[in-house]
Every structure is written in C-alpha cells, then in structure tokens.
Amino acid sequence: MIRVLLVDDQPLLRSGFRALLDLEDDIEVVAEAGDGMEGLALVREYLPDIALIDIQMPVVDGIEATRRIAADPALAGVHVVILTNYGFDEYVFNALRAGAAGFLVKDIVPEDFLHAVRVAARGDALLAPSITRKLINRYVTQPLDTGAGTGLEELTNREREAVALVARGLSNDQIAERMVISPLTAKTHINRAMAKLNARDRAQLVILAYESGLVAPRSS
C-alpha cells in the first residue's frame, strides 16, 4: 500500500486529489495539511511514502518543507513530489536541489497523476528527458571541474557510466541495455553511486552529474 500525504493550501484541490487517490486499491491518503508547517508535523507523525507538497504555501513553503524533510534522517523513506501551477521554473529547480524526487503540474491528467505517484513510491525520479534538458539548459550553466570535490572520484568507471546515463533520462532497463548488463546490476550501480555521492534520489543524481561536469548539456 502506497501511503500519501497531501499538503496544499487550496482545499478544493486537496479534495480533488484525495478523491482520485482514494479510488485506487494500492494507494491510501493518510492525512491532509493546509500549510507547510502543518505538513511537516504530519510527515513526522505518519511517515508517508509520498508527500505531495504545493510549492507556494503560507507559513512554510514547499521548498523549505522539502529541505527540512530531506535533512531529517528519520524521514529518509519519504519521497517529496512538488505540486505546481506553472510547470518547470526556478522554484521547482530549487525544490529538486532541496531534495524533491520530482514535480507535477496541477492540471495533469488523472492517469498520469496516478502513474507518477507509483513511480515516486518506487524511488524513481519524476524527470522525463525533456524536463532534464530544460533543467540543465536553464540552470546548469557553470559546471565544476569533473570530480573536483563532488565525490565522483569515489565512483568506479561503471558507476560513473551509469550515473551519466541516468542524467540523460534513461530508465534502469535502458541503462542495462546500453551497458550490456542486467537491470538489477544497473540498479546496483546507481544505488551505490547515490550512496557514495550522498544523493537522496535520482533527481539529485541528475543535478550532480551536470553540475560536476560528468555530463555536458546538449545543445538540443
């Protein structure tokens, strides 16, 4: 059962998301909150698998709420998915850097919304290749020297290769095919790289790969 916490200051939107989620046999909404401070308290109380958090809220906004969740070892199993009205922008980028697993635009169609919740619950980042390109082209403009002070020097060659492919938006199955290994081995390389780099999830791994210079932004 996927346990979900809803955090949004608009009751109508919360009730709409809840009604949709409650129809699914494998998803349970454990609680709702109307601002970030209340949301943080409920995250600590319920320890949900997914915290769907609005990016702009009173008291504590979604970025700060994400930062506090990511910084708390007791909440390591909570995957934050940011809710936004505007699509990918600087606020979303800052939330990803703070530790969010991905983001959803509020006008998403129901089928895609439910799929996204399940993807996030598996620990995969909600970053399609098109979003990854937008992210790096707009915000990752001054890469560091490759491996300098980032922990990349601790990675094996195969782990570095796997991280680079994650940064290109490939799934575990696609990475396995590209590297001629099993999906389980691909997942192992990625998990070991995340541990060595202290990356909370694949979203942070993508950002680190580009900011470190391991992968260079493409022109298109």
CATH topology of the largest domain: Rossmann fold
| Mean of residue pLDDT values | 84
Reading off the top of the CATH hierarchy, the class of the largest domain is best stated as: Alpha Beta
Q: Please name the CATH architecture of the largest domain.
A: 3-Layer(aba) Sandwich
Name the helix and strand elements from N-terminus to C-terminus, one letter apiece: EHEHEHEHEHHHHHH
User: Which percent range describes the beta-strand content?
Assistant: 5-15%
- Output the number of helix runs: 10
Number of domains: 2
What's the helical proportion of residues? Answer: 40-55%
Poorly predicted ranges: 141-148
| The CATH homologous superfamily of the largest domain | Response regulator
Number of strands: 5
**Backbone shape:** globular
What would you call the structural class? Answer: alpha/beta
Sheet with the most strands: spatial strand order:
2-1-3-4-5
Main sheet summary: 5 strands, parallel
Report Rg.
17 Å
Span of the ends, CA to CA: 40 Å
Give structural notes.
This protein is of the alpha/beta class and 220 residues long. It has two domains: 2-126, 3-Layer(aba) Sandwich (Rossmann fold), CATH 3.40.50.2300; 145-212, Orthogonal Bundle (Arc Repressor Mutant, subunit A), CATH 1.10.10.10. It has helices spanning 11-22, 36-46, 62-71, 90-98, 110-121, 129-139, 157-167, 172-179, 183-197, 202-212, and strands at residues 2-7, 27-33, 50-54, 79-84, 102-105. The longest helix has 15 residues, at 183-197.
